[in-house]
Write a structure and sequence with these properties.
With about 300 residues, this protein is an alpha+beta fold. Helices cover about 35% and strands about 30% of the residues. The protein has a 10-stranded mixed sheet, sandwiched between helices. A two-stranded antiparallel ribbon has the order 11-12.
Length: about 300
């Protein structure tokens, strides 16, 4: 089943909902970073939530969510950008990808324990002007509740967030989520109805494992609320790293340090934190960077 996101609203009820299947996306992140089951769940939930919020991006805008907790994961990041043909590119990683604490008291992956206490920072970068940055304390470290708290406290948007990642013996078997938001001007009845529907919704991974598509997750969160479907968005793992960006970072070391590296190492490697791609520069390449600085 291909990953996808669908967007819908119910103006009369004062509710908008976005839902998506992200199984392939999370599976690729798990494989690229060799994530443990708990890290897979944490990173997968954050990437899914970021992708759902990313449906509001326009042009060259970007969205980044950073979770900085004091748990053994050491922090997780998800980054979203728009691609051609109504496609969203998402990437993400955990600082300590192999952390895998014991199951919690109810026999589930201890994501909250792995994340710990801390804060969530959401950054939206625009084509023009300064980025918008919102920071909120983590509520539980389970990601869904933390995103809901961010939307309610930083954006003043009452929301219901459901995110899930199911791990089997062969890795990620199901991942996805849904976010329901109360539209501007809606009254308390809209909030109450959204909460009622969200609480009655079966677990996301249970629905996906049973064959649910993105529009099924929409309907599950909407309950009896009639929806108007607006658009479908494709979803892939995508990274913005390039050799040119690696060279720019190395230039920041300065001429003397570059010459020292070139004299001591036949090759210099740089690896992208998001996609794990490795860029290799020869001693001659590094010397060339030093020469570029001499000409400035």
């Amino acid at each position: 089943m291909a990953d996808e996101i669908v967007v819908a609203s119910a103006p009369e009820a004062g509710v908008a909902i976005v839902a998506g299947i992200t199984t392939q996306l999370v599976r690729e992140a798990q494989q690229r970073h060799e994530l443990s089951p708990t890290a897979s769940a944490a990173v997968g939930r954050l990437m899914t939530g970021a992708a759902l919020l990313g449906t509001s991006l326009k042009g060259r805008e970007r969205l980044s969510i950073q979770v900085a907790g004091d748990g053994p994961l050491g922090g997780i990041v998800a980054d979203v950008m728009l691609l051609p043909e109504d496609t969203i590119g998402v990437r993400g990683y955990a600082k300590h990808p192999r952390v895998n604490p014991p199951l919690n008291d109810v026999g589930k992956l201890a994501v909250g324990l792995a994340v710990g206490a801390g804060k969530m920072q959401v950054t939206r970068s625009y084509e023009v002007g300064q980025p918008y940055v919102g920071v909120v304390p983590l509520e539980t470290g389970e990601i869904a509740e933390d995103l809901a708290a961010y939307l309610a406290n930083s954006q003043q948007i009452p929301s219901a967030v459901a995110l899930g990642v199911l791990i089997g013996t062969d890795g990620v078997t199901a991942a996805g989520g849904a976010i329901g938001q109360v539209l501007p001007g809606a009254d308390d009845r809209a909030v109450a109805e959204l909460e009622r529907c969200a609480n009655a919704m079966p677990p996301v991974t249970q629905q996906i494992s049973a064959g649910a598509r993105a529009h099924d997750l929409l309907d599950a969160m909407a309950g009896d609320i009639p929806l108007r479907h607006h658009r479908r968005v494709n979803l892939i793992f995508a990274c913005r790293c390039t050799r040119e960006k690696v060279e720019t970072a190395l230039l920041g070391l300065g001429r003397d340090e570059l010459l020292k590296i070139a004299s001591e190492q036949p090759e210099t490697e740089a690896r992208c934190e998001f996609c794990r791609k490795t860029y290799v520069l020869s001693a001659s390449d590094v010397s060339g960077l030093a020469q570029r600085l001499e000409k400035l």
